[in-house]
Design a protein that fits this description.
Keywords: Endoplasmic reticulum, Repeat, Signal, TPR repeat. Pfam families: DnaJ, TPR_2. It comes from Gossypium armourianum. The chain is an all-alpha fold. The chain has 3 domains: 13-152, Alpha Horseshoe (Serine Threonine Protein Phosphatase 5, Tetratricopeptide repeat); 250-342, Serine Threonine Protein Phosphatase 5, Tetratricopeptide repeat; 344-455, DnaJ domain (Helix Hairpins, Orthogonal Bundle), CATH 1.10.287.110. The chain has helices at 24-36, 40-53, 58-70, 74-87, 92-116, 120-134, 139-151, 155-168, 173-185, 189-202, 207-231, 235-248, 253-269, 273-286, 291-303, 307-320, 325-342, 346-350, 358-372, 381-398, 401-408; strands at residues 13-15, 21-23. Strands 1-2 form a two-stranded antiparallel sheet. Helix 2 (40-53) runs antiparallel to helix 3 (58-70), helix 10 (189-202) runs antiparallel to helix 11 (207-231) and helix 16 (307-320) packs antiparallel against helix 17 (325-342).
């Protein structure tokens, strides 16, 4: 990149724009100082005035071309370089900078194409390694860089890049929009809104600023409506509001993570475990360390009787927050439910509900015992014996009020002396032996001794 000299070894004088003679070295010193403080327009005005006074002043063309290249005004810059080379044929520095101009111009066009094709990383490389090396004052390249960074979700870098642009031009509408969008996607909505408002004060009809501003207002309105409906107990309305807010901008992850969590919590309250689990998973996909989403997903899995999944989630949550008693209580509930799910369902074995009366349980037992009595199932005696044991064991628990209450509370069968599947109505093997007598009895005996059913 060409560095402007502080002075040039030129001894001739020029007629300046006001008609007064001036020294060329002083002119170029003034141009150099203007460039240092980024007053490019003043520098160009001085050079244009010098060229108008002396069309043969080659150094003025050279410096004008260099400034225009840095500003990426490539067509104007190329004309000035060519004019300089007409006056100074074969000048190596001029030819080198003209080549750099063409490289930068091509690289900028490529970067725009890469932006359109969403190849953000490569587009940034072209800008940083070529365009902004040869054209460091190129506002188009700087804005494009901010757009590429925004598309790549490097929001802090967008804020930094647009900060430099706004320091030079505080009213740059594109920079205000991009900076506002970066704050928006970081969920710093107040700061985003201030940037949009400043831009709209400068140009009330700017379409992109209007879209961003009113889009943000609508999102905040929907979010507040959802939260208000939760507080009022209007949970179904809250569900619709949360879904509506999520539909507004699926890419707004920093805000949507809280919307997904809020929706999950409402769905858990409504008993919609499957939907709640999906919403909490969406939140955890965005932020895997979100403890509340992990807990709520555990509660949702309890609703769907995914006992192992609930235990896994709640155990992970308890490890992250070991002092939280609410999480520990939820984990204990899940572990108890998992344990209960693995024991035999005596109600199912007798074909009765958990609310059945003792009389209903007794009738069901008698019916099944008659059906599976081994003496009545000679052809499938082994299966009948197994079924008969299950039926008798179920009735041993459910036919006794105290044992049934303990079973319903999830206490271990072993605590009742049942030994899980060890109950044996036929005796033998250390199990308790029972004698059953049906009214009228069954002909013959079974198992080496009479047994019947006393009702």
């Amino acid at each position: 990149m060409h560095v402007f000299p502080v002075s040039l070894p030129l001894e001739f004088t020029l007629g300046c724009a006001d008609g007064k003679p001036g020294n060329a070295a002083e002119l170029f010193e003034s141009v150099s100082q203007n460039i240092k403080v980024k007053r490019y327009s003043e520098a160009l005005n001085d050079l244009n005035a010098a060229i108008e006074t002396d069309p043969a002043l080659s150094e003025a063309y050279f410096h004008r071309a260099s400034i225009l290249r840095q500003l990426c005004r490539y067509e104007e810059s190329e004309k000035s370089y060519k004019k300089f080379l007409e006056l100074k044929p074969g000048n190596s520095i001029g030819e080198k900078e003209l080549s750099q101009l063409r490289q930068a111009q091509s690289a900028l066009e490529t970067a725009f194409s890469l932006f359109d094709s969403r190849d953000h990383t490569k587009g940034l490389e072209y800008l940083d390694k070529v365009v902004l090396v040869f054209s460091p004052a190129c506002s188009k390249a700087k804005i494009l860089k901010a757009k590429l960074l925004l598309a790549a979700k490097y929001y802090s870098s967008v804020i930094s890049e647009t900060g430099f642009i706004l320091k030079e031009d505080e009213n740059n509408l594109e920079a205000l929009l991009l900076r506002g969008q970066a704050y928006y996607y970081l969920a710093d909505h107040d700061v985003a809104q201030r940037h949009y408002q400043k831009g709209l004060r400068l140009d009330p009809e700017h379409s992109e600023l209007k879209k961003a501003y009113f889009g943000l207002k609508n999102l905040l309105k929907k979010t507040k409506s959802a939260e208000d409906n939760v507080n009022k107990g209007k949970l179904r309305l809250a569900v619709e509001d949360y879904k509506g807010a999520l539909a507004l901008d699926p890419d707004h992850l920093a805000h949507n993570v809280h919307l997904h969590l809020g929706l999950c919590k409402v769905l858990v309250k409504l008993g919609r475990g499957k939907d709640a689990s999906i919403s909490c998973s969406e939140a955890l996909n965005i932020d895997g360390e979100l403890l509340e989403a992990l807990v709520q997903r555990g509660e949702a899995k309890l609703l769907t009787e995914d006992w192992e999944g609930a235990v896994d989630d709640l155990k992970s949550a308890a490890q992250k927050s070991p002092q939280d008693m609410n999480i520990r209580e939820a984990l204990m509930r899940a572990e108890k439910a998992l344990k209960m799910s693995k024991r035999k369902d005596w109600y199912k074995i007798l074909g009765v509900s958990k609310t059945s009366s003792v009389a209903e349980i007794k009738r069901a037992y008698k019916k099944l015992a008659l059906q599976w009595h081994p003496d009545k199932n000679v052809d499938n005696r082994e299966e009948a014996e197994a079924q008969f044991r299950e039926i008798a064991a179920a009735y041993e628990v459910l036919g006794d009020d105290e044992k049934r209450a303990k079973y319903d509370r999830g206490e271990d069968i072993e605590d009742m002396g049942m030994g899980g599947g060890g109950f044996n109505p036929f005796g033998g093997g250390g199990g308790q032996q029972f004698t059953f007598t049906f009214d009228g009895g069954f002909p013959g005996g079974f198992g080496g001794g009479g047994f019947g059913f006393n009702f």
